[in-house]
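**User:** I keep going back and forth on a fold encoding question. It is easy to fool oneself when nobody else works the same problem. Could you pick a protein and write out its sequence and tokenised fold? Could you put it straight underneath, so I can go through it closely?

**Assistant:**
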Amino acid sequence: MQQEKDISMLILNLLKSGDLYGYEMMEKIELLSNEYFKLKAGTLYPILHGMEDGGLIESYEKKADNGRMRKYYRITNQGGKVLKEKKSEWKSYVEMITSILGEQAYEN
């Protein structure tokens, strides 16, 4: 599923700036994408679990200000390497599409 791969790349990119918990990720992705990506917990958490199983991220629990435990995620070294590869692939993909579409890529 391509969209899941794209979201994984966005999550890795967010986590390279610091640890986040799930709801925080959903808010940041929605804000940074100008509401293009509006993830629901039922979409995000299976992706996070798969990324964790794959060694791209790891989780830990930390007490929030309200006293409840919250699960945070952080990028691993392997996740950093994968992010670098995905960014390179994405840049090549965008350049290829723009080359094919030329000026038409930005017209209505």
Summary: The chain has four helices and three strands.
